[in-house]
Every structure is written in structure tokens, then in C-alpha cells.
Amino acid sequence: MKKIAVFTSGGDAPGMNACIRAVVRTAIHKGHEAIGIFRGYQGMIEGDFQPMYPYSVSNIIQLGGTILRSARSKDFRTPEGRAKAYANLKANDIDGIVAIGGDGTFTGARIFMEEYPDIKMVGCPGTIDNDLFGTDYTIGYDTAINTAMQAIDNIKDTANAHDRLFFVEVMGRDAGFIAMSVGLATGAEAVLVPESKTDIQQLIHTLNTNYTNKKNSSIVVVAEGDDAGGAFKIAEEVQKHCPYETKVTILGHLQRGGRPTCMERVRASRMGVAAVQALLDGKSGVMIGEVKGEIAYTPFSQAIKHHNAINPMMLGMVDILS
Ligand code: F6P
């Protein structure tokens, strides 16, 4: 393998920098040249490449975001865009790539590899949503849930001081992992996720029962992809039938930033090392994951098709403990 390139694509996630660092340093340690592709697939199309050295990734392990920057490239969805990307890779002697991203990234990688099988690609799961099959944790998830948990802890203080009901919307357009974890960790009254149908009448009943039982404030965590139409719509409906004064907070992109947690850095480093090793072992078209503590390899086509199901017992715990 002549040169190993690395890029980040889609929504950035804390821990991506730790993964980039691991890829660059492992590639060089094994005697290969490392290249950084900036702005994901868009940078691949525009030839935005830079050689990377061990010092290029110094002092980044603790940083959120991604030093390689990211993009959601529309041009890469076209055959012309992918042809340009291929020409740039060949012109730069790149024959192995580590792609760090989520389902959009691996969907692009799968199509690209079918068209240009001489370029070998291995993925590392980078998304706060934890919604990829073939790994117990995606890079960014642990930090995002800790960030969201701290934000909701703060909201609880003020909710309690004013006897209010808060609907807090967290990220996750297709998956409720963030909502479920932070809901459990903050003692929320209810957690609404895309994976299960939201029953507004039941929610109103639960909240009214809590009110009657003198619970003076309540938190409901809503995943952005919940089928009931988002936190504002649900709050408006609930307010009509519930005595609590109701407020809404959308946590939004603050969940995507911040310093990665310790486990995030460790997992991201481990996956970055494994990705380079996988390329050198001749693997391609697979996403690296961590399953039950061991490194796992899952074809892109499977990783993007379905994500691990939310454990119904965990959702049941919210009802028991609230
Ligand atoms: O995929 C990660 C994610 O943060 C989702 O949870 C969210 O729906 C989406 O990205 C937001 O994307 P953007 O930053 O492009 O608006």
C-alpha cells in the first residue's frame, strides 16, 4: 500500500480527532505515508489533500470537532463527482482510505467501492447517534450523552425551582439511543423515541398522576426523530390537558461539541489503529466496530442497513423508575 488517507464526513463527533491521530500515527509507524483529506467527500472531489506527519496530529486527542473538517457532499452522490474523486486519489497515489463517519459516509463508500474496487476503504463509526449496526458504541456517543446529561441536570434545577414541566429534545433523527440513555441518567418521567409509537394520552395520564402525587417538576426527553412531531408540538398538546407550566428546550448542536470523554478517546484510538491494520491485512468495505469489548468487522452494506435495537428493558426501566 503506497499511501493511506483519512477523512471525516457527515456530522462531526467528539473523538474523531483521536481516531484521525491513531490512523495517521499507525500508518506512519507501519512504514506508510499518511494523507489527510479535508472536508470529507467534497475535499476528495476538489483534491483538498495534505500529507500528514506525526506532529500534524499533536495535541488534538482532547479536542472536539475534527481537524480535517467535515461536509455532507451532494456532488459525491453523482457519478461525475465520484469520478473526479477517483481521479484525484489515483493522481496522489492513494490506494487505502480510512473513512470516519456515519451511515451517509458508508453509503457513499459502498457505492464508490463498487465503481472503483482498486481503492480499498475501511470505516470507523463516527456519529453521536450510535445508530450503526456492528458496533456497541460509535465515536461521539459517550461524550454526547454526558453533555446532554449535564445540560438536563441544569434544567432540572430551574424546573424544580418553578414547578415546571420541561420537554427536552435531544439529537437522534432515526434512533433513540441518546434519548434513552440521558432519560435514564437524569431520572426523566418519560422518554420518547423513534423506535416506539408515542402515546400522548398515556403521557398526559402519567404526568397528571405525578402532579396529583405532588411531584412538582418533571422532565420528558424527546428524541428529535420521535413520531409525535417534535418537542414543541408535543408540549403544546400536553399543556392543554396538564396543570404544569410547560417549557421546551432543544439541546441541538451543543451535543455535538466538547472535549471527548476518556472512554471516547480510548475507543476512537483503538478503532483507528484497527482500521489501518485491517487495510494492511487486505480487508476492504468493512466498518470497524467494538462488540462486547472485541474489535469487529461489518460490511458497509450491513452497518448502514439497520442499527442495533433499543433494549425494551431499558425503556421499561424509565417507567419503573420515574
Ligand atoms: O448524525 C448526527 C446528527 O447530529 C443527528 O443526530 C442530527 O439529526 C443531524 O446530525 C444534524 O445534522 P446537521 O448538523 O447537518 O444539521
Could you walk me through the main structural features you see in this protein, from its secondary elements to its overall organization?
The chain has 322 residues and is an alpha/beta fold. The protein has 2 domains: 3-140 and 260-305, Rossmann fold (3-Layer(aba) Sandwich), CATH 3.40.50.450; 141-256, Phosphofructokinase domain (Rossmann fold, 3-Layer(aba) Sandwich), CATH 3.40.50. It is built from 11 helices and 11 strands. It has helices spanning 16-29, 40-46, 79-91, 103-115, 141-161, 177-186, 200-212, 231-241, 262-280, 300-305, 312-321; strands at 3-8, 33-37, 49-52, 94-101, 120-125, 164-170, 190-192, 218-223, 245-250, 286-291, 294-299. Strands 3-2-1-4-5-10-11 form a 7-stranded mixed beta sheet, sandwiched between helices. It has a 4-stranded parallel beta sheet with strand order 7-8-6-9, sandwiched between helices. Strand 10 (286-291) and strand 11 form a beta hairpin. Helix 2 packs across helix 3 (79-91), helix 5 crosses helix 6 (177-186) and helix 7 crosses helix 8. The protein is elongated, with a radius of gyration of 21 Å. The structure holds 6-O-phosphono-beta-D-fructofuranose.
What attributes does this structure have?
322 residues, alpha/beta, Rossmann fold, 2 domains, 7-stranded mixed sheet, 4-stranded parallel sheet, 11 helices, 11 strands, 43% helix, elongated, binds 6-O-phosphono-beta-D-fructofuranose, magnesium, nucleotide-binding, AMP binding
